[in-house]
Amino acid sequence: MVLLSRLVLRKLPKVSRYIAWDLELKTVVALSWAPSSNLSTRNSSCALPHIIGGSPRVRELSGAGLRKYSSAAMSMAVDDREAVKQSITSTVVEEPVQKESTARKLLTLVIIHSDGKVLLGLKKRGFGKGYYNGFGGKVEKGETIDQAAARELQEESGVTATDMEKRGILTFHFDNDPLAWEVHVYYATKFLGEPCETDEMAPTWFSVADIPYDVMWSDDPLWYPLLLAGQQFKGDFCFTNTTTLTSHTIEVVSSL
Question: Domain named Nudix hydrolase: which ranges (predicted)?
Fold first, then answer.
């Protein structure tokens, strides 16, 4: 049995017909269509023609209307009249839970903090151009998040961290992207090589007191202090027009 807004439907055997008890008109009606197998109550607030994708022929099961069905179908319809009504009070149809999509983009971000200074790169092209940021990017197919973090750091800055550890997980929601961005934030104090400019980034050392938050993403001042203080954290940030932060949550956690 299927509950559609004001109708409770029951399939008639051997015929492509459904009968329904109309909750408002208090009568049994016949519908000359069969709901599709994937019909869900998610659409139950819509108008009936929208639910079934057409204009169904609906008739009360009385008088001339009843004679349009075979005697077997009529017998079932009449016999079911009370059963359908009684089932209304015992049938519970739960609204399907609309789960948030778990599909998301996985990215990394590495911040090097050494001798009281932070290594940041000025983004030269692409997303975030003109902003200072840590070094990172997308996790490629076939690599772990840790591997992606090490690779992106080396490609964008020319250095290899030797004590990299994960400190945070940040989730970003952009109004022009249906996928959430899950960014794994890493912290390092030791590295091999010398920072050098690449096609992607121009590295610069800043003292902690002089971190250029005015030319960085607007969420950075909210979690950089946690990172530099040695804490682990999780955050969720919503942006409109790509760069305008509209809401956020952030918390210190004991483990990631």
Answer: 103-229
